Amino acid sequence: MGIYEQILQFVLTGLTIGAIYALVALGFNIIHNATGIVNFVQCEFVTLGGMMMYTYYSLLGIPLILSFFLSMATIILLGALIERGPIRAARSKAIIVLVFITIGLSSTIRGTALLAWGPDNVPLPSFSGENVIRILGAAILPQHLWIFGITVGVVIFLQYFFHRTLIGKAMRATAVNRKAASLMGISVNRMVLLSFAMSGGIGAVGGMIIAPITTSSYDTGIMLALKGFSAAILGGYGNNAGAVAGGLILGVLESLGAGLISSKFKNAFAFLILLLVLFFKPTGLLGYGESERV
Amino acid sequence: MKKGLLIILVFGFCMFSSGISDGAEPIKIGAIFSLTGPGAHIGVAQRNSVLIAIDEFNKKGGVGGRPVEMVVGDDESDPTKAVMVLKKMVETQPIVALIGPTRTDTGMAMIPTLEKEGIPTFMHAGGDVIITPVRKWIFKSPYRAADAMERIALHLKKHNLNKVGFLHASDGFGKDGAAIVDRLAAKHGFELVAKETFDMKDVDMTAQLTRINARGPQAIIIWTIGPPMGITTKNARALGIKVPLFQCHGAAEPIFFRLAGDAAEGVMMPSTKIVVADKLPDSDVQKKKLVDYIKEYEARFKDTPGTMVAYGADAAYLLLEAIKKAGPDRAKIRDGLEGMKGYVGLSGVYNLSSEDHTGTTVKDIALVKAEKGRFTLVE
Amino acid sequence: MAPFTRKKETLFLIIFALAIILIPLFVKNKYHFMVMNIVGLNTIVVIGLNLLIGFTGQISLGHAAFYGMGAYLSAIFTATFGFPPWPTIVLAMIITGMVAYFVGYPSLKLKGHYLVMATLGFSIIVHIFMVELDRITGGPSGFPGIPHLSIGAFVFDNDFKNFYLIWTFVFFCILVSVNLVNSRVGRALKAIHGSEVAANTLGIDTDKYKTKVFVLSAVFASLAGSLYAHYITFISPRSFDFYYSIQAVTMVIVGGMGSVWGAFFGAGLLTVLSEFLHVAEKYNIIAYGAILTLVLVFLPEGIVVGFYNFYRRRKIKSMIEKRGGEFRV
């Protein structure tokens, strides 16, 4: 393999992994925009996506496509339940308290998942076989194409939803100014509910499409969520285009860093870049002026 | 008539119950595993493996009629918690010996306390640091990583594969392997063309494998346990890497096929003979023991035992054997362990001594290959 | 902010000191000592973190890194290079404080939750260095053979002796914090917490104060880390990962933000709870999460302040009712 083919290989792999980071980052953003909190249950949305799909497909024998949508629906429901239950019941709406409620929930769900599925990783089949596809000397799997395609699909859907539908516009209005939105007759509670449901769905999709490559277990979501969170910050927290850009950039940089410089400090590179961005352009690459210096 | 029967029953019951309580107070041994946290997938299997060994021992009469009871603790894969669990056990239970823990770092954290208290301990942890230097009270049952790697090196030498790529996890086990492969490369004269690393939580190792592959290796050794075994194998096959792939001595588990899928085909690894028991010649001294154990394990846990189970069970067998000979006395048990010679276990024939607290050699290690969802014996 | 008056606070400090002196007379179990020692170490970390969160409203997810830096600096300098332990602890505190300054200063200038992200990134990088610089740190297998602390010929080599050592430090940390809260700096911090803009216009250099508190909290964490290393004599990166940071912040929240005594109760309660939940075996993670969620949903001010307010409300209610009035919240 020549050096150019190698670089192409690094970029292609980086982009697919980056696409997953982007999906997770989008999930973080949607809830952040509606509530201002960092939702730690996002890890569990990703994990449960993979595990539910395994349950429906491998244990219950439901066809793959149906399992995909069933798992998504399950996690959407879970997201809604979390909002309807603990988040809405919370006596204090202080951001810091809500954040730590999600940490508590995350721990509860992870414990339940460990109990339900055990500690071992479980496999999921690729959506369409494992025949290697060669692009200019670089090798990728059909699953990589699925990951990329589905991510693009989700992004297009979100773009349409937030900019072309009334309810999407209402959600954006809530993100900009809750009080004003509420005065305009938008039910803020319903918007928050919707944001949890959507985050759940998107997180689950991320978990499901990566599982055939990495397998899935009760704690697979943690590292992905951490990277997704970083991607969201890198792109500018709350900015959806930024989340996608952040995810892809993080994925590609990791892959290039490991391939060309040193695999030892691969993860350190990613977070070092994150720190540098925070210090020199704190709003993130595509962030808008939400966090000017006071 | 009825009355007579009743009297016999009552009498019998009294005899029976007195048989349990009288002079048959159980001897307690501690067992600490990583039942939750990142080490859980190994810890749970190890607990199961030890359970069988202890039940079997008690069925055979225990220590002169006294059964052995296992007190289980969970270290949550956390070194601080491990020391706490150990201290709790030491304070509340009269344990004469200890089995476990699962991980190298939890094991290392417990060593100062174990040495101070003088508790003979048989660990399941993979890292060689645990027994180098030899510590008075500490033993470990899994093969030395150096021996397992040597097994691969011998195979490479035999087949004239001189250029080797090495890929390892950045955890204790993986780094241990990275240090060993340097030594063995010098000893056996193969060239290490590339050495790359990854994090246990990483989801893709294509970049590292691409880098290794570009240096034209004739074989690739991958040193990790857990999910990355599957991901690395899949990534390597997806890149079209055709050279022989080797995994470490913790990979010969049924889960390997679930993790790696079709990519598992043809991957080789050092292992205990437990995964190829039915293919062993009848002359093999371990065969009967292995076959019996597998039958028992499958009946009880509805699962096929892998190589980790063999290490787990051996720690228990050796300890129980020592307790049987020495009685419930910590110092005598320890001395008994050091005097253990030619003990036929599941992982090999153990010869423990004051210089060697593992007791197995490279001769005990089998090289197996994954073929059609099963393991076959290579040599 | 703190629900106690000064007089009461002095009383609490005296009771606390007496308790530290007397408790070992009733405890004989090494395990119980160890649990109390870990509570003590966590308390030191949480006190500092509590000042930060309570007064600046900023969360740090990097305190595991400062805790770890204290532990590793002490371990490396004493065990590898043979430095004397006591000055090394101070050296570690200074180094950690300086690093904290460089991490905290740029991000504390910003509004919003930038400190969370900067400290999170920072702690992951520190963790990677602990793992990858294995020649110096021992890597993931850990760093064994750290000497116990000693004064003259007296060596702190068991759980009982370490109890006095650790809790003496806890006491002084509490003392420092209580004084800080009641000092000029404390008043400035309270002003910042009330309204940063108002404090700023009154001539308080808010950035400077916020950075100071952050550095102080990092120094506390470093101290706890050094004590941990010399107590357990073995350290590994697993003890200083992301989860520890989360755990520490959780202790702050459960104990009650901005209350020094809350830090102590939060650390004690959660450490003991996670030990106690071993009874629940495989349900322990679930139970821990569920309890945390319930506390936060229903007692968001934290347990100490939450119960105190509850008690105060009841007292006021009964007073009002005695005079024939009606009490409404």
Q: How does this model look, in words?
A:
The complex is a heterotrimer of chains A (294), B (379) and C (329). Chain A is mostly helical and 294 residues long. Chain A has one domain (3-280). Chain A contains 11 helices and 2 strands. Chain A has helices at 3-35, 42-59, 64-89, 95-117, 142-164, 166-176, 178-183, 188-214, 221-235, 240-261, 266-280, and strands at 133-135, 138-140. In chain A, a hairpin with a 2-residue loop joins strand 1 and strand 2 (138-140). In chain A, helix 1 runs antiparallel to helix 8 and helix 3 crosses helix 8. Chain A is globular. Residues 289-294 of chain A have low confidence and may be disordered. Chain B is an alpha/beta fold. Chain B has 2 domains: 23-143 and 293-361, 3-Layer(aba) Sandwich (Rossmann fold), CATH 3.40.50.2300; 146-271, Response regulator (Rossmann fold), CATH 3.40.50.2300. Chain B is 45% helix and 17% strand. Chain B has 12 helices and 14 strands. Chain B has helices spanning 2-21, 40-59, 79-92, 104-117, 145-158, 172-188, 206-214, 228-238, 255-260, 287-301, 307-326, 330-338, and strands at residues 27-33, 68-74, 95-99, 121-123, 138-140, 163-169, 191-198, 219-223, 245-246, 268-271, 343-344, 349-350, 366-371, 374-377. In chain B, the strands form 4 sheets. Chain B has a 5-stranded parallel beta sheet, sandwiched between helices. In chain B, helix 3 (79-92) runs parallel beside helix 4 and helix 11 packs across helix 12 (330-338). Chain B is globular and about 65 Å long. Mean pLDDT of chain B is 86; it is low at 1-22. By secondary structure, chain C is mostly helical. Chain C has a single domain (6-282), classed as ABC transporter involved in vitamin B12 uptake, BtuC (Orthogonal Bundle), CATH 1.10.3470. Chain C is built from 14 helices and 2 strands, in the order H-H-H-H-H-H-E-E-H-H-H-H-H-H-H-H. Chain C has helices at residues 6-26, 30-56, 63-80, 85-108, 114-132, 134-137, 159-181, 184-194, 196-201, 206-232, 242-255, 260-276, 284-298, 303-322, and strands spanning 150-151, 154-155. The two termini of chain C are 20 Å apart. Chains in contact: A-B, A-C, B-C. At the A-C interface, helix 4, helix 9 and helix 11 of A face helix 5, helix 9, helix 11 and helix 13 of C.
